[in-house]
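User:
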Amino acid sequence: MSGQTMIDFLAGRGVPVPLAATIAVILAGLVFASVFVRLRRPADEAGAAKRRELKARIRSWWVMVTILVAALLVGRTAMVVLFAFVSYLALKEYLTIIPTRRADRVVLLIAYLAVPIQYYWVGTAWYGMFVIFVPVYMFLILPGALVLRGETSGFLKAAGTLHWGLMIAVFALSHAAYLLAVPPPGSHEGTGAGLLVFLIVVTEFNDVAQFMCGRKFGRRKITPKVSPNKTVEGFLGGLVATVLLSAVLAPQLTPITMPAGAAIGALLAVAGFFGDIVMSAMKRDLGIKDTGTMLPGHGGILDRIDSLVFTAPLFFHTVRYFYF
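Assistant: Predicted structure:
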């Protein structure tokens, strides 16, 4: 299927042309990457191992992009359900890697129930409850439930780690899904989907750009004890590349102008960097390399959404405050 055919196919199913073109470019990039890796012939075993890891990463990207596009074509409800499922998997992964007490097991059910409730607020566009349910109500409910279990040893650590898990896996991520409900009635068709795709593309592109620039030019480490591969050169290279992409993409997918898009690109690049290293610090503290194995070549769900956990809330509230 050619790029134009793909654009026509998506546009015929109600996807705005700029958004369809963006998806076509992403798919074309995956095709190119797949062919490039297949034709590449490593010189030694180390090169072969890197090739296998890269192939696994690309296969995972194919799966993730396919699922995202399919949900986008089905509609807003499917996208909200998809993000709710991702939040559930992320929370499950988080609760698997953190130490828990035997007395906490019943309370974990309450934490899981927060996922459908939070996404109900998203699905019904109830902003008031959406924005306070996890930070306020779950903040009060979880320690109350823990107290009723009667175990005081490790109480503070249990309450803090459980609520922090809800904040990153459920509350922060749900901001991305709520972008679909941000545009008021009468907005241009596909505005919400455009905002969501813009956020995901820019965030993930920033991750790749910082990694590639750091690998090629990296010399000065920023946080050697937390993430040894993070360098000043990689961060700055990713920042510049992300600003340029955001400036070009924002007017195509969103109501954001090119200058504002550049500023938002800088915000997302910085936020994505901190999301990455914060999750790295968590893994260092727990003594693990990856949070899971669900996504071959990437690790776990939390490994893949670490940057989005920081960029989604900042982007959401910036857009809501200045544009809607």
